[in-house]
Amino acid sequence: MKPSRILVIALLAVAALYFLLPVYWLVVASTKSSAGLFGSFGLWFSDPQWLHNLSQVFSYNDSVFWNWTWNSFLYAGVGGALATLFACAAGYALAVYRFRGREAVFKVVLAGVLLPSTALALPLYLLFSKVGLANTYWAVLIPSMVSPFGVFLCRIYAEAAVPMEMLEAARVDGAGELRIFNTLVLRTMTPALVTVFLFQFVGIWNNYFLPLVMLSDDRKYPLTLGLTTWQSQAERYPELYQLTVGGAFLSILPLAAAMLVLQRYWRSGLTQGSVKG
Amino acid sequence: MSSTNPAGGGPRRTARPDRAAWGFLLPFVALFLFVFVIPLGYAIYESLLKPIRSGSLGLGPATVGFAGLDNYTLALQQSDFLDGFGRVLLFGIVQVPVMLLLATTLALVLDTLSQRWAGILRAAYFLPYGVPGVIASILWGFLYVPGVSPLVDLLGRAGLAPDFLGYHGVLWSIANIVIWEFTGYNMLVIVAQLKSIPQELYEAARIDGASAWQTAVRIKLPLARPALVLTGVFSIIGTLQLFAEPLVIKPLTSTVTSSYTPNLAAYNEAFSNNNIYLAAAESVILALVASVLSFGFLSLVNRKERGAR
Fold this sequence. Notes:
The complex is a heterodimer.
Chain A: H1 3-29, H2 34-39, H3 50-96, H4 102-114, H5 117-130, H6 137-144, H7 148-161, H8 164-172, H9 177-188, H10 190-206, H11 209-214, H12 223-233, H13 239-276
Helix pairs in contact in A: 1-13, 3-6, 3-7, 3-10, 3-12, 3-13, 4-7, 7-10, 10-13, 12-13
Chain B: H1 17-47, E1 49-53, E2 62-66, H2 70-77, H3 79-111, H4 115-126, H5 133-144, H6 150-157, H7 170-195, H8 199-207, H9 212-223, H10 225-240, H11 244-249, H12 262-271, H13 276-308
Helix pairs in contact in B: 1-13, 2-13, 3-7, 3-10, 4-7, 5-7, 7-10, 10-13, 12-13
């Protein structure tokens, strides 16, 4: 084997070790007792008591962990789906219609892509608490429904994939604009929709700052926020160290599984954003 | 797109194209106004106010009065707020290039592997993107703390005494978390761009006798430029938003202060010090700096591109 080849394989192996090691540590640590977590070597098992630990995670504090899991799915699922629908309609409109204000709308969308969302979280909180929306499910859901990047992706995709002739033909047949969108456009744009939904789902699932400023009732927390409250209380209640580890392990399962299955789909969708970007 | 209409109908395709377009745009635009524009306007308004206390000791009922730019001058005079910006800038100058270099290298190398191996490794590198930032920070937090961490344990046995949470180390420990989270994602964007390059280009290069290295540097890298620009912009924006990672690491070490990054400072101002007016000003400054940097980077890159042609 050539030395350059060996170098490449070594690089790839070290990288894989780097990216997987923390996850491996988490799996091992989630099986340990509280004593084992601190007293045994981190990269190997000692007195596995997995089922006991995980049932502790679920039952602690009136099963609050179930609430968090459900909330995460609610915020990410509903927010992601609506954001995708709205982004698709807007991107499609920007791609196929010529109307006054089109360029202005597109510029505003671009500004939205480039403005950091956490710089907005605090202003959002100030506004939402003024209108009485703070500490409600809506406080997290409403901002999650907006995806400027999704509009950007959908516009590029619609320009390339929605044939004008198809629209013309449908109009000649007497179909209304909304009907054309519902029956033809949504179907044509499915690959872009999947991409936008996945982006938005992961973005909302991973979001932390927005729920942190918006929510004060821990039953409304998503997983990310819930687990950090356990971690921050662990100093006083040491059993929470093990619960934080177990909860962290459980919380990455859904997305890790989705990542592995969907990266193929995702990869083909990502190109849409960068080809013209 | 299509410019002429032989049937003679002109550019107006339907009776009311404007109305249909705005109908499709309405839900997004309405929400965008409610979630982006109005909050920013409200924050700017709040940033121009301040509480005015009455009574001899300032303990009387407070009223809110116009402050002009007082909050802005106050924010810009606070050394720890400015330190936060400096810290984030230093962080970005190091972290963004390291991450993008790693992502590009991995993408180029994966591009030369067989389908099966490339698929397995790509999944392994991408996995951390599915771990939320705060969970990643909790995880790495355990790996940084002596006593729990097998890393500190092993390095200690090897005679090294790493201080991941010390004054000089902690910023780079946070950088490591961010690199761990996002390298795989950026790699995937670059891989996607590489896949869209027509295969004939490689054929031609091979016939011309180009080595794998030459093909990578002369052909793939320049063609991956749009993806690099995209990942670059998002990384810059991400750096300025730095919040969750330092907040989670904060309880583990005294070196992370409550104004460690601009975002943390604004959060702390609003929720610990209860000064929402100053917090609003700090948020506006942060949004402004972030926009200037990302737009600046984009126009810099675009100008270079035009110059090269």
